[in-house]
Amino acid sequence: MSLGDFLNWLASAAINIFHLITGRLFVQDSPDPSMSQKTKHVVIIGGSFAGVKTAHRFLKDAAKKNVGPHKVTLISRDTHFYWNIAAPRGIIPGSIPDEKLFQPIAAGFSQYSSDKFEFILGTATGIDVNNKQVTVYKAGQETPISYDYLLIGTGSRTSAGSPFKSRGSTEATMEFLHAFQKRVGEAKSIIIAGAGPTGVETAGELANKYQNKKEITLISSGPAVLENRPESVSKSASSQLQALGVNIKLSTKANDPVTLPDGRQEVTLSGGEKVVTDLVIPTFGVIPNSSFVPPSLLDKNGFVKVNEYLAVEGCKDVFAVGDVSNVEAPQFWFVNKQSAHMGKNFVSLVSGKPLTPYKASTTGMIGLQIANSGTGHYGNWRLPGFVAATIRKTLFVEMLPKVVDGTES
């Protein structure tokens, strides 16, 4: 044996003796796969349809495909999911119980372990896209939360005088809704300002319930109700509402109501006419909940600008879906489609795979129930009244628990 071979043998023997003493004979360290991969943190802002739906779709698809370490943090200012799709009927006292309009969000995610999901009750107050942090106001203080990928799904709001969207917290929404139901029940005259889908459906629900016991007036700022929809749909809606006794004022705008000393409300119409009524229900206008988003990421109307991947223009790893984005009209089925797509794309991001572009719909659609009939369209094809009424009969309240717990995906 040469001197070199002897020295190599001696070094090897010394190493083996060391491993023997430490109980690690011939055992070589191998890195823990879970430690070699950083957990990808997906932060979702918004506890309504867009945020909840995307979170469930991502978590379920990620589990099926066994992707790398990941966690979702859902930030919501509401403890409960509000099924505002049913609000046109829900404003009528005794029509829909609270438990069919509100479901606890956190309970819907109890199926996931704490290392996969966290619910934070708080309000997003800012986004730092350079340092990839969201500032959240919770428990009386502001807290920064870091993200790898961020989804903005905060939805939209309507006029301060309507109960069709969250009021900033579940407690505030419930309190406002209950007070509004009481006012609807007591009112002898009601003005609905805005003749879009919500206004038309609300007028139909009220007129069908009270059968001429209340004076219902629907005001449209345009020359027809459901303006910008096919003419046949607009005419169908008008004739059905008028048959129920609804008064329709066209090409008329109503200013914000003024509450009088006796509790009634006065509105000034665009022609200068002042009208006093027991209750005004504003249903016009959609305002995106985007005040916490850097202005450079918003369009002129306050909606978040996104590209074909639903990625926010002007920054990296930030996405937006639902009413807060500018990709499609703020409608239930579009939000559903966007959320499902974004859930799948988050799986691709965590897996290091390319994103799939989102195909925005160019076909207008709507379905409304008016009493025992209804109207609607898909593109230029008008839905028969009985079809629209059948589709909208329950206002989909049976879907609420399934959306919240992810079984409706």
From TrEMBL:
Q: Which GO terms describe its molecular function?
A: electron-transferring-flavoprotein dehydrogenase activity; flavin adenine dinucleotide binding
What Pfam families does the record point to? Pyr_redox_2
Signal sequence, renumbered to the chain? none
User: Which GO cellular component terms, listed alphabetically, does the Swiss-Prot or TrEMBL entry include?
Assistant: cytoplasm
User: Does the keyword Secreted belong to this entry?
Assistant: no
Which residue numbers delimit the FAD/NAD(P)-binding domain? 41-333
Instruction: Cite the entry's keywords alphabetically.
Output: FAD, Flavoprotein, Oxidoreductase
Q: Which family does it belong to?
A: Belongs to the FAD-dependent oxidoreductase family.
What name is this protein filed under?
FAD/NAD(P)-binding domain-containing protein
